[in-house]
Amino acid sequence: MDVLSSLGDGFVVAFTLQNLLLALLGCFLGTVMGALPGLGPSNGVAILIPLAFTLGLPATPALILLTSVYYGAMYGGRISSILLNIPGDEPAMMTTLDGYPMAKKGMAGEALALSGIASFVGSFFATWGLVVLAPQLVKVALLFGPAEYFALFTLAFATLGGIASRNQAKAAFAAALGLGIATIGVDGQTGVPRFAFGEVHLYDGIDFLVAIVGLFAVSEIFVFLENHRGNADADASKMKIGRVTPPLSMLKKTAGAMSRSTVIGFIAGVLPGAGASLGSFLAYSLEKKVSDKDGTFGKGDPRGVAAPEAGNNAAAGGALVPMLALGVPGSGTTAVLLAMLLALNITPGPLLFQQNPDVVWGLIAALFIGNVMLLLMNIPMVSLFVRVLLIPPKYLMPAVAMISFVGIYGISGSTFDLMVMVGFGVLGWVLRKLDVPLVPIILGVLLGDQMEKNLRRAMTISDGDWTTLFASPLSIALWAFAILGFVAPILFGRFFRVKRREEDVGD
After folding, report:
1. Which long-range contacts (CB under 8 A, 24 or more apart) does 245-252 make?
2. pTM of the model
3. pLDDT at 430
């Protein structure tokens, strides 16, 4: 009952005119960004972080805006997947397998509406899972000491590559690079500058917001300039939408797929490093084994659209559980949201539910509201969102650049930070060409300071005895999971990727 009472208080916070308008704006912008191939939720949230600061939004409204963008982008990724056979983001990749064949059959509108309903089901029940599971996880987190937190951060880095990682060594390199960037600045314990090279601006370290906007938003501008994206307008304009409401028989046929995929996706989202991509793949693979009796998957089966959409949206909600309860992001987008919380001087973790209940429960209540908004928005406004695919990059990319530069300058008022942001943009562009993931770098920048502090505290308490890092059963379990999470992609990643390619090609 305490949880329901707290959730009721959260709805009181969320049901203000400002927060409702911000949720509506975030849902709309998120859907638009999700529909554009290449942007996705991580970039969408990163682009709008400076805007939230420029508007001077307090903590709760700012988080409502950005999480609505997050959920909206997860919805929007299906649009280009179904109409153009181009995933809006990686989690929407599995939706292309049956969504695009449905569109070619003249059922594009039904596929888009069905995917919107499946996204709602996955997000809605995942948010309930967040309500139930996060407070329970907080009780466990109160048992954590410095050694346990250090092991937990190690677990986050070890599992970040995930089973789908193409190269675990590159993920480890990216994490190490992020941790190295986190050491820049004056050491808080000794007062000695580290890696500042005499530059006074670096004494305070690298602002993680500058790093995030540079690595995600600015590097995306360079990628667009290099690839000259935006030539899909002809295909999008030729695709006929058709009816935008799926028949009742189709909903009945896909109800089981939605429910099974929601459970699978939520579990995948809660696991650190797994994320929505794994949730989408597992949901589609399971549904194909369970339901594909006639070999219709890959040929336009509605269940092949409902399953991955419910799975990846449930995973998006599940990824918020470890971020809010433990302060460890479950996905790349939640890592960006974690940066927003830290920038607002709010520390996610066990004490968040006690010290800032209005923030966390207002956010959760806003997620419920945002889900309803997205469902009501995505069915009647399908034709409008399809037109988003016709926006030429020559108009889109300058807008992204303007928001990034104006936003960062509005936060710090420093031209040096703008140069650092551009430098991170170039770095992100180079790393993306080398297929080095960017999320481990962000996680290293975000968690590096806390990881170092907890290691030092553990060493100080134990008088320098390093075995204290493995002294408790909880820390041993975390280290075991960390080792397993790092080794599993090496052992099973090839099998996973082969299976994934088989799904892409079809039977």
Report:
1. 245/109, 245/110, 245/113, 245/379, 246/110, 246/113, 246/114, 246/117, 246/302, 247/110, 250/110, 250/114, 250/302, 251/114, 251/117
2. 0.72
3. 92
